[in-house]
């Protein structure tokens, strides 16, 4: 089988040369193990942290290690009770065409419920992050103003819609007119700001009367601008800082932290793996999808050999909604 490995630790922006496609032999599955064939693999911003030799919330990879990732796969051969050939499963596997894994590490995906690729997005890790990050850490109440950055991405697009369903006024910040149009016209955001062409601070001040919840996926200058408009007792959910993931120097933090004294705002990180059971998130989100209250989109890159390009595209904002790779 073919499998992608980390070829080098990127300096700044990763490039294709940091990835190496290798041929590996897959053994027959042993007791309790399952042979799976990858259908879709995930590319996620946090993988950038694992490519770095530094402390991060996900264990760093060594150069030469296989690229691990969320995968949706079909069972080819099973020695595990509860899974049989033809079942579709989701697990933390590799950028690999085939793999042998312990059956208990896989969760079965119901192909009748939704397209199976959604197990990597709206009904997977990003959806759970949006749900728990917003409801548990952001604690929005009806009438609150909720601002989300990275708003047209896998996590952000779900955050904004859950806030809207919860009766909040929602502002999304994203990097193109196509994305902002999707947010307001299809997803029901009240306002959307294109940070590439507009002054975020100015537009935000015009659009709303301060910010009660800020769900931050990006950090950097966008976050600096939003911090200046927090309301009293605002909650900032620090979910991601993608604008800093390729930085070669530690950036200066948000200015005007003295504003937190006036507002007594709370800034708190969220880590989705702190929530061991994602059932509640998937039931709620699945219900909203079925009721046509929550929409999602996927950007699909075709071809196993293009996985690195799909990953690199996250840092260029090439995806709308969840970026996946379809393996044929
Ligand atoms: P997205 O689908 O949002 O893809 C990344 C997006 O980030 C791009 O589409 C791009 O959109 C935007 N972006 C890239 N570079 C910049 C930049 N310099 N400034 C502003 N925006 C930028 O990814 P996910 O939804 O999977 O992840 C979103 C965030 O959530 C990430 O930071 C990720 O690390 C984090 N995360 C955290 C988890 C946790 O447990 N804490 C779990 C899952 C994700 P645009 O065109 O708008 O720039």
TrEMBL record:
GO terms for molecular function: oxidoreductase activity, acting on the CH-CH group of donors, NAD or NADP as acceptor. Keywords: Oxidoreductase. Residues 1-18 are annotated as: Disordered. Residues 15-325 form the Enoyl reductase (ER) domain. Residues 1-6 have a biased composition (Basic residues). Residues 8-18 have a biased composition (Basic and acidic residues). This is NADP-dependent oxidoreductase. It comes from Salinirubellus salinus. The lineage of its organism: Archaea, Methanobacteriati, Methanobacteriota, Stenosarchaea group, Halobacteria.
